[in-house]
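To whoever picks this up:

The parser on our side crashed when reading a file containing two proteins. I've narrowed it down to the boundary between the first structure block and the second sequence. Both blocks are reproduced below exactly, byte for byte. First block:
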Amino acid sequence: MDARWSAEEHFQRGQERLDAGRPDAALEHFRAAHTLQRDNPRYRSSYGLCIGLVERRFNKALELCGSAVKEEFFNPDLYLNLARVHLAFGFKAEGLRYLRRALMIDPANAAAQRELRELGERRRPVLKFLPRRHVLNRLLGRARRRFDAAQGFGADRLGRTAQEG
C-alpha cells in the first residue's frame, strides 16, 4: 500500500472496492487504515467485515465489528457491517437483527434496506392460530413452498409482505 495515503484515503479506496464487489482488493486498504488508526470504529468495522468475507475468520471479524458497534452504537453502517458478517456465515436471524437495528437508527439507510430486501420476505404462517415455530406450521410451510415452486409462484407474485408475516 502507498505510504503517502492517509488512513481516510485508504478507507475510501477500500470502500470503493468493497462497493464494487471486490472485498479481496478492499481488505488491504482497510487493513492499512486500521493499522494507521486503530481507535477508529469505522476502520475497525470495515476491516473486520473484509476479514470475514475474504479470510473467512468469523471470530476475528465478529470481534472487530462488535467492538466497533459497542464504541459507536449510533452508527448504522457499523450495524450493517456486523449484519453482513453474520449473513456471510449463515446466521440469518442475527443478521436480520442487526439490519433492523441499523434501520432503527437510520430508516433511510439505503444499504441496509437493500440487504433486507435481498434476504426476502417472510410469509404468514399457514395456521395463524399456532406459533410460527410449531411443527405443523413448519411442515405445512415447507409443503406450501414446494407447491408454489412447482407452480412457478414466488412470494412476491403472491402479494405477501413482510408485515403480514
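<<boundary where parser fails>>
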Amino acid sequence: MATKKQINATASLFATLFLWAGLSAPALANPNDKQLQSVAKELGLLRYVQQPTKKIQPQQIPQRQVQQVSQPQQQPAKHDPYAAKRRQIHLQNIARKKAYQARLSQQQRAKNQRVHNQRKQQQGSHGNVWNRLYQGFQIRDYNNQPLVRKFTTQFSRSPQRIQRLADRSSQYLYMVVNELNRRNMPTELALLPFVESAYRNQAYSHAGAAGMWQFIPATGRRFGLQQTRSYDARLDPYKSTKAAFDYLQRLNREFRGDWLLSLAAYNAGEFRVHREIAKNRARGKRTDYWSLDLPRETKQYVPRLLAFKEIFRNPRRFRVQLRGIPNTHALTQIQVNKPVDLRKAAVVAGLPADTLSSINSGFLHGITTPRYSNLIILPRQHASRLNHVIQRLPPAADVHNVAARKTYKKRSTRRSRGRYVYHKVRRGDNLYRIARKHGISVKKLKRLNGLRSNKIKPGKRLKIASRSRSRKRLS
C-alpha cells in the first residue's frame, strides 16, 4: 500500500504532465467512471475530475392571482357650448400680441436708426464742426455745482430754443472754432456768444455793449475795434472774434491759467475780480471763482456757459437734435475799395434784401465805408454771384459826405416836424442803438424826450434834433 507521501508525489507528477501536455484533468476524466474516480481519489486527483452536474428542473412558479382592479366607468364628456368661442378669443389674443411685439420691434429699429444717423451726423462725422467742438473741451466739469444744475434744468425745458440758437450759430461756429484751435484755447469759449448775445451779431445791451461778443465802447477801443457814426467794428464778426480772444488770452495769463476767473473778469472787469480775490485772501478764504463775492450777473455768467456745455455735449439726453455743420467756411471776405449799398447788391443778385446787411452789420447805414474797412463778408454759397454784382455796381453815395448824410436822413426818417425829426421805436431797439444811429448821445436823447429810465416801448416816437448829424462823432 502506497504511503500518503508517495501518493502526493505521484499526483504532483501526473498534474505536471497534464499541464505540460496542454491537457486538463477534467477533459480526460470521465465523470461517470466510478473506478477512475476511486483511483483519482487515492492519488489526490479528485479535484481534476469533472463532477457530473445535476439537471435542475425549473420550479413551477405558481402564478399569483392578480386581482383585477375595477376601474371606474368613464362617463361621456359634457358638451361645452363656449369652448369654440374661448378658442377663438385665445387665438385672437395671440395674434394681437404678435402684432404688438412686431410694432414695438419696428419702432425700436426706427429709433435706433434715427439715433445712429444723429450720432453719425453729430459726432461720428469727420466733417462736422460739432465734433471738433467736443474734442477741444478743456475746462473741467462742474455739474455738481447747484447753479450749473439749475441752469441746465432751466435751459433743457425748451429744446426748441436751444435748437434755434444752434441754427443761428451755424454761420459763425466754424470761424470761431477754427480760431480757437489755431490759438490752442478751450473750445468751450465758442459757447460764450450763447450767453452774451445768443449769437446775434446785431445785439445791443442797456450798458452800451454791442456785437456778438458784447464789447463796451471803451474795451472795444482798447483792442482795436474802431467805432464811428457809420462803422462799428464791434459788430464785425471776424474782427470782434479776434479781439475777444485776444482779451481772453490776456485775462488767462493774468489769472494764471484759471479760465473761470478769466471769464468772470471778461464779464465784470479784471479789477473787480482782483479786488474780490484780495478780500478773500485777507480773510483767509478760498480765492476760486465759486468762493468770490461777485455781482449777481457775474455769478450766473459762468454757470450759464457750463450749462450750455453740458447740453451741447449730450444733446440726445436733453432732446435736442443738432443739425450737422459742415467743416468748412460758411462765410468769406472780399476786398472792395468803393462804397457799396449792401441791400441793393443783395436785391440785384436775387437774394433777400438783408442777406448782406445782417452779416455786415458793422456798416451802420447799410453802405460800406472803405475809409474804415474795405472788407465785405459774403455767404460762401452765393459768393460768386454777389462778387460779380458788387464789382459791376456803381459806387454808392458816401455817407460821410454832407449831401449823402442829408439824403440818407431824409430816406430813413419817418416824419419831420419843425426843427426835429422822429424815430419810431421798433422791437429790439434800445436808447444806445438809436443814439448811435442818429449820431447823438444817450443823455441828449433822454433829455430831448424827457426820459428818466432806459426803458422804451415799441411804437413810441422819439424826438431827435435835426442838426445832430453835423455833430462830431462820439468818442
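After patching the parser it read the second block fine. The beta strands are 331-335, 375-379, 415-417, 420-424, 461-465. The radius of gyration is 51 Å.
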